[in-house]
Specification:
Keywords: Disulfide bond, Hydrolase, Protease, Serine protease, Signal, Zymogen. InterPro entries: Pept_S1_alpha_lytic, Pept_S1A_streptogrisin, Peptidase_S1_PA, Peptidase_S1_PA_chymotrypsin. Pfam families: Pro_Al_protease. The chain has about 375 residues and is α+β, with helices and mostly antiparallel strands. About 20% of the residues lie in helices and about 35% in strands. It folds into 3 domains: about 20-115, no CATH class; about 120-180, GMP Synthetase, Chain A, domain 3 (2-Layer Sandwich), CATH 3.30.300; about 185-360, Trypsin-like serine proteases (Thrombin, subunit H), CATH 2.40.10. The strands form 5 sheets. It has a 6-stranded antiparallel beta sheet with strand order 1-11-12-15-14-13. Strands 19-20-21-24-23-22 form a 6-stranded antiparallel barrel. Strands 2-3-4 form a 3-stranded mixed beta sheet. Strand 20 (about 290-305) and strand 21 (about 310-315) form a beta hairpin.
C-alpha cells in the first residue's frame, strides 16, 4: 500500500545517536522539524548552495510538494515518467512523454517536463539489467535525468560486468554506466547500540505488537538483542533478506518505546507520519555510528546487489552512513521514510519504511 504524504499515519522512532549541531535562532523552524534536525537539514542544503531562508521554506514545503506531485502523476497515468523535487526552485517536477499532458500537470500545481522515456520503458530497461546484475553493482532509475543508471563497484566480477554493460548498450542513451570507488556493502558492525553476538545495528522504529523494525540483514545475523547499556531488548522474530531488507524484533525485555527519535544531544525529533521517499527529498538519518546526518534522496526503486544477494526497491541518498548504522531511522522532519541498509560508491541506501510495515502487519504509533 502506497500512502500519500497527506494521509500517512503516525509513527514512533526508536533510539539512534547524535552529532551535535548548531542551530539558527533567527529563522522559524521548518514545519514538523525539531531544532537539532532543522539545523542539520539546513546545513546540508547550504552545502549544496541554498541559503538558509530558502532551505527553511523548502523543508516546510516538502510534504505539500509531494502530495501535489503524487496527484499529478496519478492524473497523467501511463504517460508519466515519475516525479522529483527540484530544490533550487522549490517545486515538484512531473516528467511526461506526451506534450498534451503538460496542461494537466500544471493544473495540478506541478511543473511539467517533457522527456523521451516513460516510466514503463525505464522500468523495463532496469528489470532487463537486473536479470544480469552481479554482486557489487547498483541499478536504478534517475528520474531527473530520465535515465536508468548502472553503478559498478570495484569487486564486481569482470566477466559478469561485461554482460551487464553489453546489455546496457542495447538501450542506448536510456542507460548510463558509472564506475565507482569502493564496494556496495551492508552497514552492520561490531560494538554497542542494539547489539548481539554477531554485531551492532541501529533500531529503526518502534511498532505495534510490542515490536521494533530494523534491517533484515541485522536480524538474520543476530538472534538476541540488547541495548547500549546491556539491557535485554528481545529476540529477532522475522528477517527478510536478501530480496528485501526488513527485520522485526520483539521487545520481550519491556524496554521503553518513546515516541520520537533520540538525537543524543538531550534533544529528540518527534515523528508523526510515515510515507514514501522521492528523488529530491531532503532527508536525515540517525544511526549508532554516525549519529544524525542529512542529505538528499537521489534515486528510488534501485536494486543493490551485495555479496549476500540483491535487495530491491531501495532509495539512494547523499546522507553519510557507516557500519553500525544499519537498521536506523530515516525521516524528513516528523515523517518517517526508511531504514538504513547499506552504502557504496559515495552513496547511502535505505529501504522505504511503509512497505516493511505492511509486510509484517504492524504499524508505527
Amino acid at each position: 500500500m502506497k500512502l500519500p504524504w497527506s494521509k500517512a499515519l503516525g509513527v514512533l522512532a526508536a533510539a539512534a545517536a547524535l552529532v551535535p549541531l548548531a542551530t539558527t535562532t533567527a529563522q522559524a523552524l521548518p514545519a514538523g522539524y525539531g531544532e537539532p534536525v532543522a539545523a542539520a537539514a539546513i546545513d546540508s542544503l547550504a552545502a549544496d548552495g541554498l541559503g538558509a531562508d530558502h532551505a527553511t521554506e523548502l523543508l516546510s514545503a516538502q510534504p505539500g510538494l509531494v502530495e501535489t506531485g503524487e496527484k499529478a502523476v496519478a492524473q497523467v497515468g501511463e504517460d508519466s515518467a515519475g516525479m522529483y523535487l527540484d530544490r533550487a526552485s522549490a517545486t515538484v517536477v512531473v516528467n511526461v512523454v506526451d506534450r498534451d499532458d503538460v496542461a494537466t500537470v500544471r493544473a495540478a500545481g506541478a511543473t511539467a517536463k517533457v522527456v523521451d522515456h516513460s516510466m514503463t520503458e525505464l522500468e523495463a530497461a532496469r528489470d532487463a539489467l537486473g536479470k544480469v546484475q552481479p554482486a557489487d553493482t547498483a541499478v536504478g532509475i534517475d528520474v531527473a535525468a530520465n535515465q536508468v543508471v548502472v553503478r559498478i563497484g570495484e569487486t564486481a566480477a569482470a566477466a559478469k560486468v561485461d554482460t551487464l554493460t553489453a546489455t546496457a548498450t542495447r538501450f542506448g542513451d536510456m542507460v548510463r554506466t558509472e564506475r565507482v570507488d569502493g564496494s556496495f556493502t551492508t552497514t552492520i558492525s561490531g560494538g554497542d547500540a542494539i547489539t548481539g553476538s554477531a554485531g551492532r545495528c541501529s533500531l529503526g522504529f518502534n511498532t505495534t505488537g510490542n515490536t521494533g523494525i530494523t534491517a533484515g540483514h541485522c536480524t538474520e545475523a543476530i538472534s538476541q538483542w540488547y541495548d547500549a547499556n546491556g539491557a535485554y531488548y528481545g529476540p529477532s522474530i522475522a528477517e527478510n533478506f536478501p530480496g528485501e531488507d526488513y527485520g522485526l524484533i520483539r521487545n520481550d525485555g519491556g524496554l521503553p518505546q518513546p515516541g520520537d527519535v533520540n538525537l543524543y544531544n538531550g534533544g529528540y525529533q518527534d515523528i508523526t507520519n510515515a510515507a514514501d521517499p522521492y528523488a529530491g527529498l531532503s532527508v536525515c538519518k540517525s544511526g549508532s555510528t554516525t549519529g544524525l546526518t542529512c542529505g538528499t534522496v537521489t534515486a528510488t526503486g534501485l536494486t543493490i546487489c551485495y555479496a549476500q544477494g540483491c535487495v530491491y526497491n531501495m532509495a539512494e541518498s547523499t546522507a553519510y552512513v557507516q557500519p553500525g548504522d544499519s537498521g536506523g531511522a530515516w525521516f524528513a522532519g516528523d515523517i518517517g521514510v526508511g531504514i538504513t541498509s547499506g552504502m557504496g560508491g559515495g552513496y547511502s541506501y535505505f529501504q522505504p519504511l511503509v512497505p516493511g510495515l505492511n509486510l509484517y502487519g504492524v504499524w508505527v504509533f
